[in-house]
Amino acid sequence: MNIATPPHRRRNALLAGLACMLVAAACGTRVTDGGLQGASAGGSRTPSGAAADGTAADGTAIDGAAADGTAAAGGESGGAGAGGAGAGSAAATGESSPGVTDTEIRIGASGPLSGITGFLGEEAFGAVDAYFQLINAQGGINGRKLRLITYDDRFDASQTLANVRRLWEQDKVVGILLAFGDPVADYVTRNKIPTVVFGVTPKSFASQYPTVYPIVGNALIWTQEIIRGLKENNAFRDGMRVGILYDTQVLDVGPYVPFLKEAWENAGATVVTTDPFNLTDGDCTNLVLKMKNLKIDYWDFQGLGWVLCASAAQRQQYRPPVGWGGWPTSVAGLATQVGPWVDGIWGGSQGDQPTGAPRGKTAAHDEFVNAIKRYHPEIASFAHYESPATIGYWVGAKLLAAAIKAQGPVVTTDGILKWIAEVENFDTGITPPIISMAPNCKTGSEFVWIGQWKWDAAKKEATRTPSGGYFTSDQKDRYGGKCFLTKVSDQLG
Predict the structure, then answer these.
(1) 300-355 pLDDT tens trace
(2) Quick check: 38 pLDDT over 60?
(3) What is the spatial distance between Cα 210 and Cα 86, in angstroms, rounded to a whole number?
(4) How far apart are CA 253 and CA 115, in angstroms?
(5) How far apart are the first and last CA of the chain?
(6) Interval 109-137 mean pLDDT
């Protein structure tokens, strides 16, 4: 992404790119020669058009190495694991699963690696690869290196499924990292594939998909947390009128809408409208006019289309009087697309900034920043470091690597699933711990901070600082306490 591009050109590129992103037949889904390219010091990677063995492929194979497994605080592996154990035949014979050789362990990934949101895939899988390569110099896990095989899906659901099928059936990976798991939830559950996803939607948190592990957060608890954060920052007004914009395509939070509405009204607001709006809808002018006519005080963004709506609001010189924002406004790359009108939009994060804020800088922050500087300098900037995608998939890389190391020389999908299902308070040092990965109690990241975006005219980018420390929802007990996200998601089927 060229953040120095003039605002009107950025908006034009955004519209074209977002339309292209979700119409794969027209724009293609293959990683180009420039896809996920980076000056990867010391790392080897197969060109995008070839697989690791030199045969034709649709993606990029990235060599790295596994982790030392020290990241799991309180995460000792133990008794019978819940959550649908994987390749039982391999475990029963004392043999590793396919994809594990004497020298390597293959892990797959699928996400947006091209188009206007390709930077999200670069952040996510660049972070994973940086962690693998960091540990590579230490000899890997029991002498084996991890090979990360990535494919572009441009957020297209059918391509995501095709990529996952290929990774599992042809590349023989032992685990998969995805941007979002809804399109493949049934497939990965049926085949008992360890699958790490961003989170957000009900399927990722439901117990009926026990092999899907959300690592970043959930739309419902994020909304509850933002409401609490607004109150702590004296930005909430009792009785204020709220409009909710929500996604039904890439991040389908439609099933959560009644709970989102209830969260606002529990806090003392009045939700006057809930409106689906997706990237493919293109022009948000009419929706902005609706918000003006309804005299909303706060606009709650629950979908990626917020970028288009904020741009439309700028054209009309409109801002809700109390504020606007939500969990999708957390990424600097998207906030920058809006330009100067991003000033004042609230966004949060589940992880620390590279300075250590809002907690304090530790060796874990230095490890994170230095690894990305060395192996993926194309995302070595403040905005990328603090992105939930970069932070979240660094955590995902550590999670998979720790699960692999815990098994010893025989590595199976069964063992990976068992370990992850039992780990608690998984802590990498740059985020608050993930409380639980158990199939009946998936928490994702339950602590966030929030801040308002500011436009840096000199750098032509959006920046922010935390407005306070970490906090969590004060509404969880209404819905079942610690495991309420899984309980609510299960109710939604």
Answers:
(1) 999 999 999 999 999 999 999 999 999 999 999 999 999 999 999 999 899 999 99
(2) no
(3) 11
(4) 23
(5) 38
(6) 91
Helix (H, G, I), strand (E, B) or coil at 239: coil
Of 221, 246, 176, which Cα lies nearest the Cα of 432?
221
State the DSSP H helix or E strand holding residue 178, giving kind and residue range, or none if neither. Answer: strand 176-178
* Model confidence pLDDT, tens digit, residues 433-442: 999 999 999 9
Tell me the CATH number for domain 220-353+446-491: 3.40.50.2300
Q: Which two tokens stand for residue 53?
A: 């063995």
For residue 471, the 8-state DSSP code is: B
Give the helix/strand (H/E) hosting 405.
helix 388-405
More confident residue, 85 or 126: 126
Provide the residue ranges of all domains of the chain, joining segments of one domain with +: 42-218+386-426, 220-353+446-491
The gap from C-alpha 268 to its chain's centroid, in whole angstroms, comes to: 30
Cβ–Cβ < 8 Å for 109, 61? no
Mention the CATH class of domain 42-218+386-426: alpha beta
pTM of the model: 0.83
pLDDT of res. 424: 95
Task: Tell me how long the chain is.
Answer: 493
Domains 42-218+386-426 and 220-353+446-491 belong to one CATH topology: yes
Note the Cα 177 to chain centre separation in Å. Answer: 10
Q: Which residue has the tokens 């504020």?
A: 323
pLDDT at 52: 34
